[in-house]
């Protein structure tokens, strides 16, 4: 930086030579302030999304920089929400980036007193084994009059209202095929 | 609405700006009340009395929209003379079976339809929540009905309705609800004055209505009013449900529910649906009018989507693979079965029953008695940590070292870390784009269930057991992508939409579904969401670039229709009722229905069309029958079938109430679902003794700042700081009576639990004068539990389990309790306190809650026998 | 009355502060008559600006657990419960059996609950005063009553009730004393006419805090610097709406050119008067008031004090020009000396 540039960038110089003799406006603007821009403008990508809380279905725009969510705000194009969000919707970035988010599989063995680590693949395999065991233990082929039942009442599942339609579809399809009938979600409460 | 759905409330403010009057009815003065023109405090659990009063006001003053009512409702239809009303039978309808606590609906029928017995067993229908099937369609009735267009016949629906509600006078409303007469009249006046040809009124409710032992009848009463006033199928009208989860509508349409398959097809029942044909016929009712006639195609196409190549017409599309219901397999029955050791494994998918479900203690005791539990969530929730951090640990009821439940906590992907559709509360599907990859072990449910299915099928490969065929034959080959092999959500959506098996061409809508195995459709009502191979739910045409109906934003089921039954927005001749309220109308030049929305009618069926004799299916509906999913094309003021607790709504007291029913000897819903179990003791209500042990009414709901069981808000700093503690709102009067100090502690005791909360003394809660007594109500938010940034006792622990008979939803918006100053006891002393209350209230472990509280039961039962003998009557 | 000048009286502040090509002055109009108290503004502000939490304490001031505008809360929604009529509305509790309102006890408790927000002065003890007025009124009969409340019949004393909500924010005064006293030039007037603390300049001297006539600006403990609403200076630069206004579900917070907002606000007041809400009034809209008018002004439904706002704020630097005349020569001399020393030192 040359001396001239340096002096011209100095607030008092700008104050004495510019239109801001009291030095409270243009002359006082710092380099950082002058360079400020909304991080939404420099985002790598924007995903069009929907608020995950209630069922109003407010439109959201999710801004991403360097693989991180940097801002979630209302989508002004939405005819439902017109760009607005409630406190929950407005806290969506805080939701997905919350320090309390769990990102590792946790395992509590029977009678255990603490959580333990477990690999996801191992967990998936263990769960599959337990499903098959519970199914074998509680399978009902027919009722007492010989009519088909094809089911297990040894397995239950609860939840779905926070999930996608595609997910609910696969959940119901798989559980139905394994004969698990006791599938429920928040619509029942 | 401002409280729990603030962004939706902008439209109420918009209406208010244009001069609409806003009424708010709620036990407590909320943020909605603050913006309403008139607020009506109400005793929790008495809405049918209030709404019934409005029905009476309409009928006594003949303020109904008569032209609409005559043409579009069953007001003129004549009912069989075997029918007896609650006015005749002290709170019971004819046909009541006091042994099974359910109705034989034979005496409720339309005149001349007495022989039709599509349902032999309403107790069974209750077990299987059969009422839920009607989300997409009405119950069937035969084509022709007897009508009196003058509405004077003493047994026409109009007159029956009038007699039924004749005692719901403003004074009675006041006596039951605690709403002053003038307030009631202001509401009734405004509602009727703002409905009719030129104006429409909207009715909005949330789970404050559904979570009652008479929840379905609450909504029916609202629907009766809206139908009488001509507010259905018209812009600015309707009965609008504000649902509380992002895709709770979607998870009902594509149900993760025990009694339904996608598109409201019923899960087969072992006795009623042994074969594919019997199953299909129970849905479509051969010979019936209406749009439900094609259900064979929907059913066959679903099974084709499930079992692909293995599903053929010859093997009934693998119908035999479907598991069968034998009764009630709902979430509360499951929990009691867990306590009894019958359930081995449990999946929790983004739901937190330890906090969010009624009777939290039962939930946790059930989970502590499993072999294994899989919790998939964003956060560590109470339902995952019950073995180390539940109230039962403190009381010694659960001992960590002795609790055998194996727990897998699998972190889930958030809504920005996966793509897919949510269905919002008005049936609109909106596709979400994925923004970022999920962190660490976090995965979508799509990933988890796809790969779980893959592993299961690998483990079973080569199995010869018949039970494994359904898994091995399953169509389960979804394309995956990325390093984690994420399945394609779009491929699943395409299967939901349906496609031609031979070519893979996506269907344009459910009329293209076939019953010969040539189409596969995952959810027939969603067919069209992938029409032309385009993801219609991903459409995002700006609201600035289209009209106010915004048909190119997302996609609504069915057929992208935004207002159901919108044929009713035009008069019988097909002309808009008024220029102001025009929406869909008949264009005689084009010979077609047109308008702002997709017409909910056959596009070219003229208003003058009359069905030929004997016509069935859609052909049987006349050109002026707008309610096309109903068998008679009419809106039902009176439901001759399908609603298990009566053809008309009737005021019953909540299962737990400090008040004797002022209208009938029958205290509470005589068909409600009760579970007699030592863990589920219900507080006594009149006419039983000892109800004064629990003198106060409590109700619970949401705060703007939190979400449901708190798993997505107590864990989020921005929200947790806004409402950092559990509190109970009490009126100054109750504070004085009990000795509560603002911001001090109180504890609340029910026959199940005791919880503590900070006290907010506020004028927003008011005592009510009910039947000559002062009744105090308290309110609490139900968001709190023991995990997260801010914690508190779990309010839903106070509730017992009593369910609505139609849909098996629990009564968790009203209960009775005692309120005491100070903090609750801890450890075993807490159990002693509850035991002491149980002892004082006579709540022994083997006590059975009295269901029938009137002497009229035998007479009601007689009417059944008479009806059965004389079937056919004077037709 | 002092003369109008750069520090007092009507003025377009951006050009006055050297922004030669300044656009229209931008600001907020907060219409409290449609506020639903959802606090979306508080959250949206914190999310955008990365503002830390302000404590997890139940304050007992109705639904307000934020307490006040602080360095860690740049929007604050106040909740005021009053046993008073609300315009044309039907009294919410007409004919319900009632006893006396609770006011005093509630407010007294509220005063004792304020805890550390991690800022200075943070939430002053016992404030905002609105809490003390929460339910106070001439009807107050004391607690507890002579007989068990609620069992009395006929004492229908509590029928009127209203719940006021108001999202408060920095007023972005035309004459901003915080800016005038800032010795570092950290506080400055932007080209939008707003007042912004520049976090890279602020040295935490705290002069601005006592200068603010509204008690808005506040220091963050540990950090030491002053923080407040920037009217989302970065978003404005990108042509976007400030985060709070964009989120607001009911358009209670409106953002735009101040001239337009003032027109809109006047119309809104007239409409409300027509609809039987005579108590509707504007606050901070008047360019001739003690701060030359606010860049963020309000429609209120009661006296400003009810919301914890000063009834007649005056810029604390009003008399500065007079003082400057006397100190002018000395100041210039000092400045010249400073320039000489600096240039000399770096060459």
UniProtKB/TrEMBL annotation, chain A:
InterPro entries: Mopterin_OxRdtase_4Fe-4S_dom
Gene Ontology process terms (BP): anaerobic respiration
Record-given protein name: Formate dehydrogenase major subunit
Alphabetized Pfam families for the sequence: Molybdop_Fe4S4 (PF04879)
MF GO annotations: 4 iron, 4 sulfur cluster binding; electron transfer activity; molybdenum ion binding; oxidoreductase activity
Compartment annotation: Cell envelope
Signal peptide: none
PANTHER family xref list: FORMATE DEHYDROGENASE-O MAJOR SUBUNIT (PTHR43598:SF1), TUNGSTEN-CONTAINING FORMYLMETHANOFURAN DEHYDROGENASE 2 SUBUNIT B (PTHR43598)
Family matches, as SMART domains: Molybdop_Fe4S4 (SM00926)
Cofactor(s) this protein requires: [4Fe-4S] cluster
Keywords assigned: 4Fe-4S, Iron, Iron-sulfur, Metal-binding, Oxidoreductase
Gene3D superfamilies: 3.40.50.740, ADC-like domains
Domain 4Fe-4S Mo/W bis-MGD-type: 44-100
GO cellular component: cell envelope
SUPFAM superfamilies with a match to the protein in the record: Formate dehydrogenase/DMSO reductase, domains 1-3
Similarity-based family: Belongs to the prokaryotic molybdopterin-containing oxidoreductase family.
UniProt keyword annotation of Oxidoreductase present: yes
Automatic annotation (TrEMBL), chain B:
Start-end of Basic and acidic residues biased regions: 111-137
Gene Ontology CC: one annotated term: cell envelope
Residue ranges of domain Molybdopterin dinucleotide-binding in the record: 699-806
Pfam family, one: Molybdopterin
InterPro entries: Asp_de-COase-like_dom_sf, Formate_DH_Act, MoPterin_dinucl-bd_dom, Mopterin_OxRdtase
Region (Disordered): 107-146, 597-621, 855-875
Co-factor(s): [4Fe-4S] cluster
Compartments in which it is found: Cell envelope
Every Molybdopterin oxidoreductase domain range: 3-380, 410-452
Keywords: 4Fe-4S, Iron, Iron-sulfur, Metal-binding, Oxidoreductase
Domain of life: Bacteria
Gene Ontology terms, MF aspect: 4 iron, 4 sulfur cluster binding; electron transfer activity; molybdenum ion binding; molybdopterin cofactor binding; oxidoreductase activity
GO biological process: anaerobic respiration
Similarity annotation: Belongs to the prokaryotic molybdopterin-containing oxidoreductase family.
PANTHER family in UniProt: FORMATE DEHYDROGENASE-O MAJOR SUBUNIT, TUNGSTEN-CONTAINING FORMYLMETHANOFURAN DEHYDROGENASE 2 SUBUNIT B
Protein name listed in UniProt: Formate dehydrogenase major subunit
UniProtKB/TrEMBL annotation, chain C:
GO biological process: cellular respiration; formate oxidation
Renumbered residue ranges of the record's region Disordered: 86-121
Binding annotation for [4Fe-4S] cluster 3: 170, 173, 178, 212
Molecular function terms from GO: 4 iron, 4 sulfur cluster binding; metal ion binding
Sites where the protein binds [4Fe-4S] cluster 2: 45, 229, 232, 244
Coiled-coil stretches: none
Keywords: 4Fe-4S, Iron, Iron-sulfur, Metal-binding, Repeat
PROSITE patterns on file: 4FE4S_FER_1, 4FE4S_FER_2
PANTHER family linked: FORMATE DEHYDROGENASE, NITRATE-INDUCIBLE, IRON-SULFUR SUBUNIT
Listed name of the protein: Formate dehydrogenase beta subunit
Organism: Micromonospora chaiyaphumensis
């Amino acid at each position: 930086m040359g001396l001239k540039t340096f002096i011209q960038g100095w607030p008092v110089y700008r104050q004495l030579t510019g239109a801001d003799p009291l030095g409270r406006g243009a002359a006082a603007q710092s380099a950082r302030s002058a360079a400020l821009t909304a991080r939404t403008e420099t985002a790598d990508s924007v995903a069009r999304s929907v608020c995950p809380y209630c069922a109003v279905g407010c439109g959201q725009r999710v801004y991403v920089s360097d693989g991180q969510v940097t801002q979630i705000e209302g989508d002004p194009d939405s005819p439902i929400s017109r760009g607005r969000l409630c406190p929950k919707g407005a806290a969506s970035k805080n939701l997905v980036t919350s320090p309390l988010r769990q990102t590792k599989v946790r395992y509590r063995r029977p009678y255990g007193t603490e959580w333990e680590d477990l690999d996801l693949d191992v967990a998936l395999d263990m769960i599959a084994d337990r499903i098959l065991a519970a199914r074998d233990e509680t399978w009902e082929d027919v009722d007492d009059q010989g009519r088909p039942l094809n089911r297990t009442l040894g397995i239950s599942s609860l939840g779905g209202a926070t999930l996608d339609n595609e997910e609910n579809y696969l959940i119901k399809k798989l559980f139905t095929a394994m004969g698990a009938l006791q599938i429920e979600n928040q619509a029942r409460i | 609405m401002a409280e729990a759905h603030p962004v939706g409330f902008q439209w109420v403010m918009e209406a208010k700006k244009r001069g609409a009057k806003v009424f708010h009815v709620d036990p407590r003065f909320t943020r909605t009340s603050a913006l309403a023109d008139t607020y009506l405090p109400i005793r929790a659990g008495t809405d049918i009395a209030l709404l019934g009063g409005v029905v009476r006001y309409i009928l006594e003053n003949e303020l109904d929209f008569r032209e609409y009512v005559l043409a579009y409702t069953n007001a003129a239809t004549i009912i069989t003379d075997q029918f007896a009303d609650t006015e005749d039978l002290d709170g019971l309808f004819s046909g009541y079976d006091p042994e099974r606590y359910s109705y034989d609906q034979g005496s409720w029928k339309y005149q001349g339809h007495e022989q039709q017995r599509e349902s032999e067993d309403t107790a069974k229908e209750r077990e299987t929540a059969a009422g839920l099937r009607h989300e997409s369609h009405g119950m069937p009735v035969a084509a022709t009905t007897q009508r009196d267009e003058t509405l004077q016949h003493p047994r026409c629906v109009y007159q029956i309705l009038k007699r039924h509600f004749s005692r719901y006078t403003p004074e009675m409303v006041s006596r039951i609800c605690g709403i002053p007469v003038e307030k009631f009249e202001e509401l009734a006046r405004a509602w009727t004055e703002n409905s009719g040809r030129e104006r429409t009124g909207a009715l909005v409710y949330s789970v404050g209505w559904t979570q009652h032992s008479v929840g379905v009848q609450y909504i029916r009463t609202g629907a009766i009013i809206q139908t009488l006033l001509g507010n259905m199928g018209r812009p600015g009208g309707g009965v609008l449900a504000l649902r509380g989860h992002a895709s709770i509508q979607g998870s009902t349409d594509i149900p993760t529910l025990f009694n339904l398959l996608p598109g409201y097809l019923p899960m087969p029942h072992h006795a009623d649906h042994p074969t594919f044909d019997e199953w299909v016929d129970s849905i479509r009712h051969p010979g019936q009018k209406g749009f439900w006639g094609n259900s064979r195609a929907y059913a066959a196409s679903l099974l084709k989507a499930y079992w692909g190549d293995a599903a053929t017409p010859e093997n009934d599309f693998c119908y035999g693979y479907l598991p069968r219901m034998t009764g009630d397999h709902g979430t509360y029955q499951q929990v009691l079965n867990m306590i009894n050791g019958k359930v081995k494994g449990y999946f929790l998918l983004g739901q937190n029953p330890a906090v969010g479900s009624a009777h939290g203690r039962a939930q946790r005791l059930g989970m502590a008695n499993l072999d294994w539990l899989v919790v998939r969530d964003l956060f560590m929730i109470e339902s995952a940590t019950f073995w180390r951090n539940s109230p039962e640990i403190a009381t010694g009821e659960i001992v960590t070292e002795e609790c055998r439940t194996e727990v897998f906590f699998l972190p889930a992907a958030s809504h920005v870390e996966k793509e897919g559709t949510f269905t919002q509360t008005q049936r609109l599907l909106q596709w979400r784009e994925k923004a970022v990859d999920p962190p660490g072990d976090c995965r979508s449910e799509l990933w988890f269930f796809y790969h779980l299915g893959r592993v299961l099928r690998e483990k079973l490969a080569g199995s010869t057991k018949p039970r494994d065929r359904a898994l091995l034959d399953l169509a389960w080959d979804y394309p995956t992508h990325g390093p984690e092999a994420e399945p394609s959500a779009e491929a699943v959506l395409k299967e939901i939409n349906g496609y031609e098996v031979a070519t893979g061409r996506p269907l344009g809508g459910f009329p293209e579904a076939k019953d010969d195995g040539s189409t596969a459709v995952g959810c027939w009502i969603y067919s069209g969401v992938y029409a032309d191979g385009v993801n219609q739910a991903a459409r995002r045409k700006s609201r600035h670039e289209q009209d106010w109906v915004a048909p190119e934003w997302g996609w609504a089921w069915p057929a992208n229709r935004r207002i159901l039954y919108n044929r009713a927005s035009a008069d019988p001749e097909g002309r808009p009722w008024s220029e102001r309220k025009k929406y869909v109308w008949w264009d005689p030049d084009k010979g077609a229905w047109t308008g702002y929305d997709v017409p909910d009618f056959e596009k070219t069926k003229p208003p003058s069309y009359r069905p030929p004799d004997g016509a069935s299916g859609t052909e049987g509906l006349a050109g002026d029958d707008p309610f096309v999913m109903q068998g008679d094309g009419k809106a039902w003021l009176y439901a001759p079938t399908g609603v298990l607790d009566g053809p008309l709504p009737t005021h019953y007291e909540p299962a737990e109430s400090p008040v004797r029913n002022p209208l009938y000897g029958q205290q509470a819903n005589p068909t409600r679902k009760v579970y007699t179990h030592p863990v589920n003791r219900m507080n006594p209500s009149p006419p039983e003794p000892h109800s004064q042990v629990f003198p106060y009414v409590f109700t619970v709901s949401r705060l703007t700042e939190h979400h449901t069981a708190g798993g997505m808000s107590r864990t989020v700093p921005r929200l947790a700081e806004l409402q950092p503690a559990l509190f109970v709102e009490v009126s100054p009067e109750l504070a004085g009576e009990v000795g509560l100090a603002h911001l001090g502690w109180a504890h609340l005791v029910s026959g199940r639990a005791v919880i503590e909360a900070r006290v907010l003394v506020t004028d927003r809660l008011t005592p009510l004068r009910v039947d000559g007594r002062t009744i105090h109500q308290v309110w609490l938010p139900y968001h709190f539990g023991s995990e997260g940034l801010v914690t508190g006792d779990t309010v839903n622990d106070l509730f017992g389990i009593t369910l609505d008979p139609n849909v098996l939803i629990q009564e968790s918006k009203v209960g009775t309790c005692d309120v005491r100053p100070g903090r609750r006891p801890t450890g075993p002393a807490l159990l002693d306190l509850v035991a002491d209350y149980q002892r004082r209230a006579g709540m022994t472990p083997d006590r059975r809650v009295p269901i029938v509280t009137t002497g009229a039961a035998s007479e009601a039962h007689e009417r059944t026998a008479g009806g059965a003998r004389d079937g056919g009557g004077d037709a | 009355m002092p003369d109008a000048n750069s520090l007092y009286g009507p003025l377009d502040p951006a050009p006055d502060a050297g922004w030669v090509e300044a656009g229209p002055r931008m600001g907020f109009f907060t219409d409290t008559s449609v506020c639903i108290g959802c606090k979306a503004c508080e959250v949206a502000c914190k999310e955008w600006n990365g503002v830390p939490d302000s404590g997890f304490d139940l304050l007992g001031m109705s639904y307000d657990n934020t307490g006040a505008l602080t360095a860690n809360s740049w929007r604050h929604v106040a909740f005021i419960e009053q046993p008073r009529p609300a315009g044309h509305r039907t009294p919410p509790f007409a004919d319900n059996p009632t006893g006396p309102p609770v006011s005093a006890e509630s407010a007294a408790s509220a005063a004792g609950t304020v805890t550390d927000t991690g800022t200075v002065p943070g939430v002053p003890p016992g404030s905002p005063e609105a809490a003390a007025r929460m339910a106070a009124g001439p009807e107050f009969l004391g607690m507890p009553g002579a007989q068990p409340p609620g069992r009395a019949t006929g004492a229908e004393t509590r029928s009127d009730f209203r719940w006021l909500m108001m999202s408060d924010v920095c007023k972005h005064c035309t004459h901003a004393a915080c800016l005038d006293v800032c010795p570092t030039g950290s506080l400055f007037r932007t080209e939008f006419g707003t007042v912004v603390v520049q976090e890279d300049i602020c040295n935490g001297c705290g002069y601005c805090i006592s200068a603010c006539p509204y008690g808005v600006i506040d220091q963050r403990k540990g950090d030491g610097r002053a923080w407040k609403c920037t009217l989302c200076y970065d978003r404005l630069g990108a042509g976007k709406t400030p985060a709070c206004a964009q989120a607001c579900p009911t358009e209670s917070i409106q953002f735009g050119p101040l001239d337009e907002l003032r027109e809109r606000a006047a119309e809104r007041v007239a409409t409300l008067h027509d609809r039987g809400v005579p108590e509707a009034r504007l606050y901070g809209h008047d360019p001739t008031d003690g701060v030359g008018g606010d860049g963020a002004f309000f429609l209120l439904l009661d006296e400003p004090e009810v919301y914890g706002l000063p009834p007649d704020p005056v810029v604390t630097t009003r008399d500065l020009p007079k003082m400057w005349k006397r100190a002018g020569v000395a100041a210039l001399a000092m400045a010249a000396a400073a320039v000489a020393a600096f240039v000399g030192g770096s060459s």
